[in-house]
Amino acid sequence: MGLFSMTKTVLKSLFKKPATIRYPAEPAKRFEGTRGQMEIDIDKCIFCGLCSKHCPADAITVNKNERTWSINRLWCICCNSCAENCNKDAIYQTNVYHAPIVAGETDVDVYQGKPVEEKPAAAEEKAA
Amino acid sequence: MHKEEQTITEVGVDNLVSEVSKMYDEGYRLVQIGCGKYDDIFEINYSFDKDCKFVNLRLKITEGVVVPSITGVYLCAFIYENEIHDLFGVSIKDIAIDFKGNLIRTSVKNPFNTPTVTKVKAAKPAKSENAAAAGAKPDVKSDAKPDTKPDAEKKKEEA
Amino acid sequence: MAGRIVVPFGPQHPVLPEPIHLDLVLEDERVVEAIPSIGYVHRGLEKLVEKRDFKDFVYIAERICGICSFTHSVGYCKAIEAIMDLQVPERAQYLRTIWSEYSRLHSHLLWLGLYADAMGFENLFMNAWRIRETILDAMEETTGGRVIQGVCKVGGVRRDISDAKLKEMTAKLDSIGGEIEDLCHVFFDDASVKHRSVGVGMLSKEDAHKLGAVGPVAKGSGIALDLRQTGYSAYGSLDFKPIVETGCDCYSRCIVRAKELAQSVDLIKQAAANIPAGDIEVKVKGNPDGEYFSRVEQPRGECIHYVKANGSKNILRERVRTPSSANIPPLVKMLEGCQMADVPVIVLSIDPCIGCAER
Ligand code: SF4
Ligand code: SF4
Q1: Could you report the per-residue pLDDT of A32-41, keeping only the tens digit for each?
Q2: Which of A55, B114, C91, C322 is packed most tightly, with the most Cβ within 10 A?
């Protein structure tokens, strides 16, 4: 019927539970394969720079001399290209999204690799 | 694997419009006009389709040659012709709806006709359209004095 | 004769999802001429190809459009594969088909929602988007991304769908099939929808042909133009007929899209039932050398990816002709002679995606 075509849907919706999630009271949907953000296992990294060469968004900077690997979180498009091109399997994707970045915060995460000879000491991640 | 048969016929500036009219009379639909610049040659492809049969006319010109518009035959060509004019700086005369270089507004004039923009690394503020294209945003605070040398040409044009 | 006035419409307008500017020349309430201009979101993606490895460019090609994203990557990969004569495994072809149809579902549901919104039919808009959410969930679950899937790569696909998951997906489609039907029923029969769109934005078959309309705009004007008939991906082995309406107005274009929903559901089911086992990618060796025009049917119509390469790892030139740019000339034609109040509905009826029209 021309005028009441929505009635059935409206009635159904009245008795259904809401289609939306009460975020942040309830956690957001997340799937196993969701492209969240890139993580690096800095101990595996040999700072070859392959990942940054294959990054379509130029988000990765690798500094071989200082043994740092940094990623610009806002530039990264989570394409997973770096992970696929890394011969050492150092990069992997998690399904956790990065927290929002507000003005004044840095969007570049720098990971410092261990110095070459020394034993485990300063493999901490810290924000730049 | 699926691979379509695609013929490409070369045409010249003088017989372009007549060839296009022939296609029109045969009932072809104008699919697209696309331009490319290889060394000093502009290659303009006019693609037509009829019942999923795909044919192309190809026009090769050098810088400065004026191309006749085909909007007299296919009116819809105006959008492609203006685009080619704006991006490559190819001059096309008598376009039915001529935007005179204002269809696509870019900070650099004829961006596709300038030497390839250098890959801008994170530390430099990526000002130009092309560099920003990867979704990269100018990183305002990361570096105050970027090395602008590879960009010098572009900077001048923007100024 | 009434005096003429020019009303600027856009680039920012409540009804416009993307920035297109129209100068409407009005005589009283009637539009006599419309002059489009675009160029607010040119990103130069075509130029970027010269700086990227051809395999990495897939991710950028995909980002040309935020809605037809998957089909853009298929178009680009298809061009490279044709140049390099790669034999893409059957299973990958079927998976591409399934995801392409999923993106068609999500795009059309999005459009139907926006169209309802343009008419002021808010709860229909919400309803369409609620259904779309389930499609996006299926997409995220299988590919990892809601709208940018990133699963297509040169030589195949990057993720597989297990057979159990495929069964689950078709079962889910069955269950939302009823909802889609209810939704389409509103678009087919509702008095207010008809009131706003029947006889509005006429584009005759001849004009559609002459002006190079593609996709639902052409199909709504009686032209059976559907690139899926060329049989790329797995479409060659699936059974479908392009949907054609002959009303030539906004209503027909709307009906085409609504009917394509059911068609996509059907195609996904067919593909899921026939999908062969096997590899999902082939190894890519060497670099492309040659040129090819790859054509795919996107939710908005025919899209061309022209790739020219010279044997190095960077491509010389990629030219993308998106369906929206082909549909701008027909839009200008449709707007001639319409009422000012109908302009938003007509503009929306071509499903304008200006971001991809400019790239
Ligand atoms: S993450 Fe992998 S590819 Fe990147 S520098 Fe380290 S080892 Fe090389
Ligand atoms: S996921 Fe893609 S965009 Fe992000 S850092 Fe890796 S290669 Fe670059």
Answers
A1: 778 888 888 8
A2: C322
Chains contacting B (3+ CB pairs below 8 angstroms): A, C
Kindly report, residue by residue over A54-74, the tens digit of the pLDDT: 888 888 888 887 788 888 888
Q: Locate the chain C residue with the closest alpha carbon to A12.
A: C179
Ranges of chain C whose pLDDT falls below 70: 1-2, 355, 357
The model carries a pTM of 0.79
B71 interfaces chain C, CB cutoff of 8 Å: no
Q: Which of C81, C302, C293, C209 is nearest to B8 (CA)?
A: C293
Question: Chain B neighbours among C 244-303 (CB < 8 Å)?
Answer: 292-293, 295, 302
B79–chain C Cβ distance below 8 A for any pair: yes
Q: How far is A97 from chain C (nearest CA, A)?
A: 12
| Residue given tokens 């570049």 in the structure block | A108
DSSP symbol at B39: T
A58/B137 Cβ within 8 A? no
Neighbours of C248 (CB within 10 A): 21
Distance CA A116, CA C136 (A): 46
CATH number, position B78: 3.30.460.80
Ramachandran quadrant class, C357 (left: phi over 0; alpha: psi -120 to 50; beta: rest): alpha
Please state which CATH number belongs to domain A29-113: 3.30.70.3270
Q: Exposure pattern of C51-83 as b/e (b: 16+ CB <10 Å)?
A: bbbbbbbbbbbbbbbebbbbbbbbbbbbbbbbb
- Distance between CA C353 and CA C67 in Å, rounded? 9
CB contact under 8 A, C150 and A79: yes
Query: Domain limits of chain A?
Result: 29-113
Please, are residues A31 and C140 in contact by the beta-carbon 8 Å criterion? yes
Q: Which of A39, A51, A63, A112 to mutate to test the pocket of ligand 1 (most atoms within 8 A of CB)?
A: A51
Supply the ipTM of this predicted assembly. 0.74
Amino acid at B110: N
Distance (Å, whole) CA C353 – CA C359:
10
Residues of C in contact with A13 (CB under 8 A): 127
Could you tell me if residue B13 is inside a domain? yes
From chain B, the residues in CB contact with A108 under 8 A are 122, 142
- List subunits contacting chain A, requiring 3 or more Cβ pairs under 8 Å: B, C
